[in-house]
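Hey, resending since the last one bounced:
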Amino acid sequence: MHIQILKSKIHRVRVTQADLNYIGSITIDETLMNASNIIEGEKVQIVNINNGERFETYVIKGAANSGNICLNGPAARRVAINDVIIIISYASMDFEEAKTFKPSLVFPNETTNLLD
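The structure tokens again:
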């Protein structure tokens, strides 16, 4: 049996941009991606602390150490600049493997979106 389990989480980052005129996705600072073990193209769930929205999209790599968190395309309508969000990815794994798996959890500075 396989189950879905938390793989990665970037907890409480601030939206710095929202670009409706893009094909879709979320752009995430490459440093945050590396720290959280999230890769370009990976499906993620976005949870908006400010308005309760929950939606899925895929990741585009942003400039390292930029603090950039940009929702693109239709997802831009689900956030406002300066909203605080949580970015989550899940993995499918064997039930027994899941019992010992340790997710990558990142808690950046909420003001700068950078790691302290």
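The longest helix spans residues 30-36.

Sorry for the duplicate.
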